[in-house]
Design goal:
Blueprint lengths: L18 H28 L6 H33 L3 H5 L14 E7 L4 H18 L5 E7 L4 H18 L5 E5 L6 H13 L5 E5 L4 E2 L1 H13 L3 E6 L2 E2 L5 H25 L10 E4 H7 L18 H11 L3 E5 L5 E3 L5 H16 L12 H33 L9 H27 L2 H6 L3 H34 L18 H25 L1 H6 L1 H8 L1 H9 L1 H10 L5 H4 L3 H4 L12 H12 L4
Parallel strand pairs: 1-2, 1-4, 2-3, 6-9, 7-10
Antiparallel strand pairs: 4-8, 5-10, 6-8
Length: 609
Amino acid sequence: MRSERDPIKPDLGVQAPAALPRRRATFLFVVVATIALAIALVVAALGQGEFDPLDALLTLLFALTLPWTVVGFWNALVGFVLMRRHPDPVAVVFPLDRDQPRALTSRTAILSCIRNEDAERVVRYLDQMMRGLQQSGSAHLFEVFVLSDSTWPERIQEEEAGVRRLRERWGHRTKIRYRRRSNNAGYKAGNIQDFMARWGHRFDLAMVLDADSLMAPETILRMVGIMQSHPRLGILQSLILGLPATSGFARIFQYGMRLGMRSYSLGSAWWQGDCGPYWGHNAIVRVRPFRAHCRLDPLPGRPPLGGAILSHDQVEAVLMRRAGYEVRVLPDEGGSWEEHPPTLVEFIRRDLRWCQGNLQYLRLLGMPGLHPVGRVQLLLAILMFLGSPAWVLFMTLAALQIGRAPDGGALFDPVFGWSLFGLIMTMVLAPKLATLAHLLLSERGRAGFGGGVRLLLGSLGEILFSTLLAPIMALAHSLFIGGLLLGKAIVWSPQRRDSHRVTALQAARRLWPQTLLGVAALAWLASTSAGGAAFLSPFILGLLLAVPIAVLTAWPALGEWLARIGAWRIPEEVDPPPEIGTLGLPVLAPALNPMRVRETVAVDAVGGD
């Protein structure tokens, strides 16, 4: 990892930097003040008698859970203000369209990075993108690289056959290359670095995709134009939306992501500015500085915290910023999609891989020359997962103390305790509530989700679901982190992206610790403190329902029924963009999407063709 800086003209950035220090100072002040207020409330709530060592431990554990929550709250509040005060809030945080080039000239590589994935899915999405680029007349500026780390013979054969089909369709205008590494060192990051070493000198830009990435050609061309107009921009990350799904779990989860994303991303872009995030796919990077400054050497020591850096994307972002280039997110919805895990079991597997990768950042916090915002981003990425064991331990100790209290639950002062509870729930739900309020106040926003009643009911249902999901994931993170301390590392394996059943036995094998802790907590509090059981009921209920939730939300018949009645419907189902409408997704079939049937009938009635 290098630290040399390239000479860059200071006036070529996409936003004048003068406003950013004021924004960051303001944001830091309100975040610190809110954390201090929350800690003061918990100290007051625990101050029934003498503030003893256990109270101090509970306060410390509570404090560890705060940074991510408080940052999310203020991101959402800033984003809501921007959405309500400005007709184009994106222009406030990223005025990017003022200097678009008349013609694109940059040579861009499209990198599809795969490992034992469904090749048919990869080819289908690349085919859609290539069709759009051909129709735009810009396909000659792009080359496609399918970069494989696959090890399964049947997958390798499927990849080779799929690339041959792509070449037959589009190879007359665009070069399409397939390269599979026999040595998978560094996994995806190593794969991209290998491309940079072999072919990087031939390209100005590289669009990085995952196996489930789909991007509209207009979005690709827009991002290339932005990069071409602003040579100081090193990485441009698009806002990634979920593709319409029939899986019950994916439908509810991506609905919640869609609710929280708009306000959160606008708020974070407001203060992060040129130190934005990079999520490793559906993004475009400037090749020359990426080759020079973003090479990731293995961390010293053995896995799980040593060896190849798994969550490479944010590290590459802070290295790009250290080299003097901007890293920005384009907080505009539309034109960039991915698939979400179809089951709770798959979601946990993906999250634990991120958990191990983010905890490796502990070794990187002291890297010299990092921008202060970049260092904060690494720290927040660590706390996102360290907050889970802190929360689980806090709730466990609270349950033990409540059960031991002679008056049935005097651990917390009721006034300060409920004030604290209200503050935390407000901050946790703020990103979703902010976007929900904005959508309900907009006729177009309501229509995109199937109407105001459907939007409100879907949001309430998703909030309930995410409340139950939180303790399940927190305990999964906690147990995994405990395993990391004992030297247990995660196995890198492909995700199952198609809807599939999860049996009760399969769910129990993965989620028995959640069930066991839930039963133990309920039995303890029920025998000692009914009031305490009520206070901790969301935490306990989520743990008790872990197995049923995993089974029911993965049940294909339930997912199809939810799609049929329009539950948790996203805008891409109500009005599918061309890139999605022609994919043949099951959820868009007339049998599962009555709204599309009504639209088709209406078109036929007026003589549409």
